[in-house]
Amino acid sequence: MAISIPLFSLSSLSLSSSSSSSLYPSKLHSPSRTSTLGTSYCNSTSHINLSIRSSYSGNGSSPDAFNSSEIPSMSPFSLSMNESNKPSFKWRRVLLKVSGEALAGDQAQNIDPKITMAIAREVAAVTRLGIEVALVVGGGNIFRGATWAGCSGLERSSADYIGMLATVMNAIFLQATMESIGIPTRVQTAFRMSEVAEPYIRRRAVRHLEKGRVVIFAAGTGNPFFTTDTAAALRCAEINAEVVLKATNVDGVYEDDPKRNPQARLLDTLTYQEVTSKDLSVMDMTAITLCQENNIPVVVFNLNKPGNIEKAIKGERVGTLIGATWNSTVSTA
After folding, report:
1. What superfamily does domain 96-332 belong to in CATH?
2. List of residues 6+ apart from 262 with CB closer than 8 A
3. How far apart are CA 120 and CA 175, in angstroms?
4. What is the pLDDT of residue 63?
5. pLDDT of residue 4
6. pTM
7. At what angle do helices 285-293 and 228-238 cross, to 10 degrees?
8. In the chain, which stretches have pLDDT less than 50?
9. Name one GO cellular component term (predicted).
10. What's the CA gap between 321 and 310, in Å, rounded?
11. What b/e sequence results for 232-270 when a residue is b if at least 16 CB atoms lie within 10 Å of its CB, and e otherwise?
């Protein structure tokens, strides 16, 4: 038996959005069967149309009669900050090296909470400006492997591993201090200690920095016979940081030992060759060589003077600059 199917005339179909429901029989277009995506799209489209109409309804013309050329052109970057309004800094990503001895303060205890809080506050001040900060912390305030090697049969390798554990203790203390004032922080260790810190993964560390988190690298390089200065130079090269900021207990690098010679002059800038040829006790030779090969400047400054950390991170003239000049090009953060 033949079944006759009624045909819809094309002239009865309307392409306007107001009569789009006439394309389908009413029984098949019940509200209960309308998809959420379709509803939200229609609602958002109607909202856009209404907002455009209302913005041009006050000129005395019909809302449908406005000229498309009158619509202001909006750049997708029109809401972003003007580049000229951004503050300029010498470096955008820095690695701060804090020695364990500096954390001890007046040596009355292993860690001075006043020192860690001062570091946290100054790091917080620059991270809010968009500068990415990573830290490498030493462990000499708790245990120095090179000093204890040979005592009671302790081998140098074992002593260095104990010293690496000391750096983890300092890193966890620094992390707690920074997070107490609202700085998001991650600790990454060179060997696995998954219960207390993340393992060091270069890509993950860079991602943390891009998200505005401070990354503290602990446990040195994970290998004995290497200092935390070498770890600082290595991590700086790996995460593409632009400078190593070495925080110490002195104002910078002197031409002579200021304790023995009060007339010793503070050096403003140095080359890598001058550090090695004059055997200046700035960093160990492995760290200096690594910085030289990767064109990483080093700033040596006094941690104990308030504001020095913030100045050093911003690239202001403080302490001694090795491997570069102070009047180099300033980058926009």
Report:
1. Acetylglutamate kinase-like (3.40.1160.10)
2. none
3. 9
4. 45
5. 53
6. 0.71
7. 10
8. 7-84, 328-333
9. cytoplasm
10. 16
11. bbbbbbbbebbbbbbbbebbbbbeeeeeeeeeeeebeeb
